[in-house]
Amino acid sequence: MVTPPTPEPSTGSTERRQFLGLLPLPERRYLADALRTETVGGVLLLIAAATALVWANAWPAAYHSVLDYTVGPSGPLHLHLPLEVWATDGLLTLFFFVAGIELKREFVAGELRTPSAALLPVVAAVCGVALPALLFNAVNSGAGGHRAGWAIPTATDIAFALGVLAVVSTHLPSALRAFLLTLAVVDDLIAILIIAVFYSSGIVPWALVASLAGLVLFWHLHRHGVHGWYLFVPLALAIWALMHESGVHPTVSGVAMGLALRCHREGDEQYSPGEHIEHLARPLSAGVAVPLFALFAAGVTISPSVLREVFTQAMPLGIVLGLLVGKTAGIFGGTWLTARWTRAELNPRLRWADLFAVSVLAGIGFTVSLLISDLAFPDAPALADRAKAAVLTGSLLCAVVATVLLKLRNRHYRQLCDDEAEDDNENENDNEDNGQDEGRADTAG
User: Fold this and answer.
1) What is the CATH number of the domain that holds 120?
2) Distance between CA 410 and CA 427 in Å, rounded?
3) Into how many domains does the chain fold?
4) DSSP states of 57-119 as a string?
5) Most buried one in 70, 112, 183, 365, CB count within 10 A?
6) pLDDT tens for residues 87-102?
7) Is residue 189 domain-resident?
């Protein structure tokens, strides 16, 4: 059981807010359900990435022939696309749709609903994006640098991180997992803003206006209680196709539709519409869309010469340093400084070293980093492949270092998880006792 916040020693009545304290039972249950799906998806993601690497290095001609195979309807929307593009523009839209719902829920019911609780993860996410970008630009400021890839090391991949935790059997208390999830949600929002602003080109006004009109219709129908997948799925596909034609990256439409859903409960609802749709869409995103994207995106040539280039050329080295050093220093430093400034008190059963280990784990930037690698170098596939090799290398280094740090405290984490499970059982027993008491009172009445 977690000790309650300690009052300030000298200045009287103000209590210091506790950081990474025990979450309320409903939030822990939601978190456990969400992370269970993400963990399974993370393991599938690891398998897909490993399969892509083996396939691309053992049978490169077959791998690239599959990537270049084109399918889809021809016509004014130009949807006759290679499978690689369908994976990047189509499958990841579902990933960002779920991210949009997560973000909306965090704003109305999660850690981001109050400014005081939101400040730490938001600052951590912003610093975790800014410092890798600055570090990348510093490394690439000289001759031979490629500043177009500045956004590649800025992303956090929650599914990959949880997959690593599952593979190495490392326990992690719910408060640290919640911080990691909230951090990743804010990180996804920043990533989609970066993609929309910096990696959109050749805007087609009529398609953009039509897509925005579709989003307004989507929001209007949802808010007025209209139901039926047979109505919303075709509308969502039309919004996506128009956004794709507009020149804005189509994953932006996924986030916009996720944010349009209502995520607060009304009346006697057990789940809000957003929560219900997220429950249906998350397994498809984590278990199908993201692993398939990894299968099509992670197949890069790995050889001694490629690995040597990763650590000797400015662009890939900037990505590795951005993920391993920039993300860690940005997230940990931003959180520590904000906690000191706001006088937030760390949960006494945790240490700042625990947050440092989670910050290293957040340096895994697999999915969105691979996406931005393609967007940053659309006319230079060799540079994109070198960037992807750097993403894989940096993410692997973050996974190894985080695993070592978390393993050192795993016995303590297991005890915290056991205490949380005991607290859950006590709350469930109390609820059952209260229900029985109410039943007896009704009978007596």
Assistant:
1) 1.20.1530.10
2) 26
3) 1
4) HHSHHHHHHHHT-EES--STT---EEHHHIIIIIIHHHHHHHHHHHHHHHHHTSTTSSHHHHH
5) 365
6) 989 999 999 999 889 8
7) yes
Nearest to 161 by CA among 266, 72, 256, 35: 35
Whether 181 and 388 have beta carbons less than 8 Å apart is answered as no
Mean pLDDT of 252-264: 91
Which residues are bridge partners to 81 per DSSP?
71
Q: Give Cα 153 distance to the centre of its chain.
A: 14
Nearest CA among 137, 189, 205 for reference residue 376? 137
CA separation for the pair 154, 326 (Å, rounded):
8
Residue 432 lies in a domain: no
Query: Domain containing 104: what range?
Result: 21-200+249-426
The predicted pLDDT at position 22 comes to 59
Residue 400 lies in a domain: yes
pLDDT at 182: 83
Residue 116, pLDDT above cutoff 90: no
pLDDT tens figures, 380-426: 988 999 999 999 999 999 999 999 998 888 888 888 777 766 765 55
Tell me how far CA of residue 202 lies from CA of 73, 85, 195, 199, 366, in angstroms.
22, 17, 14, 10, 27
| Residue 177 to residue 331: CA distance in whole angstroms | 15
Pairing of strands 81-82, 70-71: antiparallel
pTM: 0.83
Residue 155 domain flag: yes
